[in-house]
Amino acid sequence: MAVNLPLPLAENLKPVAGVELGWAEAGVRKANRKDVLVVRVAQGSTVAGVFTRNRFCAAPVQVCREHLAAGKGIRAIVVNTGNANAGTGEPGLANARATCDALAAQLGIAPEQVLPFSTGVILEPLPVDRITAALPAAIANAKPDNWLAAAESIMTTDTQPKAASRTVQIGGKTVTLSGISKGAGMIRPNMATMLGFVATDATVSQDVLQALVSYAADHSFNSITIDGDTSTNDSFVLIASGKAGAPAIERAEGADFEALRAALTDLSQELAQMIVRDGEGATKLMTIQVEGGKDVAECRLIAYAVAHSPLVKTAFYASDPNLGRILAAVGYAGVDDLDVERVNLWLDDVLVARDGGRNPEYREEDGQRVMKQAEITVRIALGRGDAAATVWTCDLSHDYVSINADYRS
Amino acid sequence: MAVNLPLPLAENLKPVAGVELGWAEAGVRKANRKDVLVVRVAQGSTVAGVFTRNRFCAAPVQVCREHLAAGKGIRAIVVNTGNANAGTGEPGLANARATCDALAAQLGIAPEQVLPFSTGVILEPLPVDRITAALPAAIANAKPDNWLAAAESIMTTDTQPKAASRTVQIGGKTVTLSGISKGAGMIRPNMATMLGFVATDATVSQDVLQALVSYAADHSFNSITIDGDTSTNDSFVLIASGKAGAPAIERAEGADFEALRAALTDLSQELAQMIVRDGEGATKLMTIQVEGGKDVAECRLIAYAVAHSPLVKTAFYASDPNLGRILAAVGYAGVDDLDVERVNLWLDDVLVARDGGRNPEYREEDGQRVMKQAEITVRIALGRGDAAATVWTCDLSHDYVSINADYRS
Fold it and tell me: Which residues of this UniProt protein bind substrate (chains A, B) (predicted)?
């Protein structure tokens, strides 16, 4: 079940000049499903990424870091689902490199110009032969208007493909951004989401692109959580092909930079929220806004404590305004000098707790009314500063347990 | 459903000279259930406690700290279930004090000689009149052999009462320890459990008693988690009546101190594990042992990351050896310089991962065999030092969701 997540329509997804996408059915884990994606990137594009901070980062993430550092210019991306190639040691690294080698040979580029990505079960050997055997088919059907099929080809427990586009004016030219994302469980990104790819035909220098991808990740994928489990494979990649003919953006300032950053952040937030809306078993989308903090870090600490509390998440699932559970999570979040007598709590427009205690005017039926909605904003004011942070999450339902008790079967 | 948790038998619970327990049905939240407990403590006893570090600590916890600091000698304890008296601001404090005043008046002691405790729903006004009205009945039936009824009277979502006893020889005298605990959800104690009370007839000075209660809490209640939610009301209290006639223990060293500490820690671990065995919806008890760490703190960080991961907990519920989820949790626990290539993972006696990757000799059927057990040890060796830590937890089942979606109804 997904929360207000309409199916993306192919005609709403805009091609990005210089970027072609092709898929194949490799049978990595299951037959007859799109499970390999190849993205071809025009020569002269810049590519930047952010990756998981999980110490058990997957083999492909390690290879991505190496290949980006090599600086030869990225020309292709290859993604497989069904197997994360994580917790696989040296053989896993060899398999990730073998995938790059095979794609590079077929495209006539260097292996260091390929970025590999994997998502799926951890701790199992990657069936690299099945993946490389499927590459010719993916290359053959690569085309610029394949964004919807590309989104489908990276799904695992997702119930729907996730894709969106934006346009923005840069120096009188229309610049396009299109992106896809996937993920529904093991979602508490720390640097990036499970997998997110955004391409634009803007012209952006490498260091500015890195600044853009970090900023967008922090304000989107790095502000969502489903189950608090930071994946071994989180990756968010931004491609700039330069094919729009717009002025080059070579400094992280100015109107063009800010326009592109705003469009990218907006697109990334939509893609990130799609992941939460499709969270495993999700029936509600909760926006946790913490304000009045001393710094952003403490606001995020409290927002995540609330977002991760199984008791809070099950109360939302039940539409039960058992809102003391939210205060309990605020209290144990780890802000040791928090003065609870200054804390206010709203559920949408309903003031539930004032000065750390129950608001005398609060009526249970008002809380009940908000709790029944599919989308709810929890606003927590700390009364100790000007900082704020927002985290998006979903509820914890019976279906979450069913999905994760059955995932491999 | 509880995991290997036999009903305690009244005849196995030993009276502690100087301590009498009595219960009543006050109808705090529901009619016809034991929901008030009064414990009378002989004059000259020492009493020490540790309490929640949740910033939204409940009104009774604040009053307990005040009354212990007053140093007048604690003579009575009063507990109610059905309402936590937390998130209740100044009226909550007044209600906690009113409860102490009423009990003190009836027992002819000072209000500062009473410790109040509450457990139940947060953010709702305490029905103090119903509690004070029930005190005479509780006082009237107070007697030394009432430990089982006392355990029953502090239950909330617990499916079974939790109580146990120990004896130990101190200076040729038999010293008895008996204790009770409660809790099944909102369990991730930080200083102490939801509610735990242990009494002994040993003679122990106040500062040694404080050292004992802290040590025992750290090695028992502070090493369990069910859902990661640190309660607003966690309290663990130790009473020493001195009625056994054993030599006084006035220094935190020596054979007598160590014998008492060992018996107390053993009893506290049994009471704490009872809480996990009765965890909301629990079908499995998992012991998470992390060893080979640089310090205990990092071992605990990793053990709790594994114990809190919803993906790990649902895999255990399903008896699915999807063990990469454990490595993912180790990797995101926050030990930034962890060398994953030195990490080994066992499930009971089965070596699943060696040097950070899948053990080549590991067979899925071996993992499956262990996963089907009701009690499972997860052992994680970090290979970077000599420190170790153990955390006990349970799985995440459909029933956890059902219980917490229905708790208030």
Answer: 156, 182, 193, 280, 404, 409
Query: In B245-386, which ranges are E strands?
Result: 285-293, 344-347, 350-354, 357-358, 375-381
Q: Active site includes A193?
A: yes
Residue limits of CATH 3.60.70.12 in chain A: 10-277
One-letter amino acid identity for A101?
A: D
Tell which residue, B83, B93, B31, has the closest CA to residue B61. Answer: B93
ipTM: 0.79
A22 burial level (CB within 10 Å; 0-12, 13-18, 19+): buried
* Whether A97 contacts A60, CB under 8 Å: no
Determine the distance from the C-alpha atom of residue A245 to the mean position of all C-alpha atoms in its chain, rounded to a whole number. Answer: 29
Establish whether A265 is an annotated binding residue. no
pLDDT at A278 over 60: yes
Q: Could you tell me which residues come within 8 angstroms of residue A139 by beta carbon, excluding any fewer than 6 positions away?
A: A22, A38, A40, A106, A107
How far away is chain A from the Cα of B330, in angstroms, using its nearest Cα? 8
**C-alpha span between B371 and A400 (Å, rounded):** 20
- What confidence tens digit (pLDDT) does each residue in B365-374 have? 999 999 999 9
In this structure, which amino acid lies at residue A60? P
User: CATH 3.10.20.340 occupies which residues in chain B?
Assistant: 285-406
The reported pLDDT for the residue numbered A193 is 55
Q: Looking at the domain that runs over A285-406, which CATH code has it been given?
A: 3.10.20.340
- Find the Cα–Cα–Cα–Cα dihedral B393, B398, B402, B403, rounded to 10°: -20
- Chain A CB within 8 Å of residue B229 CB: yes
Do B232 and A331 make contact, defined as CB atoms within 8 angstroms? yes
- What is the structure's pLDDT at B64? 95
**Nearest one of A380, A355, A384 to A304, comparing CA atoms:** A380
CB-based contact A402 B398, cutoff 8 Å: yes
Residue positions of B in the annotated binding site for substrate?
156, 182, 193, 280, 404, 409
Query: Is residue B119 within 8 Å of B182, Cβ to Cβ?
Result: yes
Q: What is the pLDDT of residues A178-225, one digit of tens each?
A: 999 888 777 776 644 568 888 999 999 999 999 998 888 888 888 877
DSSP state of B223: G
Mutate to test the interface with A, among B194, B301, B325, B400 (most CBs of A within 10 A): B325
Which tokens go with A76?
A: 């292709």
Bridge partners (DSSP) listed for residue A180: A163, A197
If one counts every other C-beta atom within 10 angstroms of the C-beta of residue A30, the result is: 10
Angle, CA of B273, B277 and B281, to the nearest 5°: 145
Angstroms from B48 CA to nearest CA on chain A: 23
Q: CATH assignment of B10-277, given 3.60.70.12, 3.40.50.970, 3.40.50.1100, 3.40.190.10?
A: 3.60.70.12
Bridge partners, A101 (sequence order): none
Which H helix or E strand runs over B161?
Answer: none
Answer whether B345 touches A (CB < 8 Å): no
Of B123, B188, B311, the CB nearest to A185: B311
The catalytic position among A81, A88, A157, A193 is A193
User: CB distance from B355 to chain A under 8 Å?
Assistant: yes
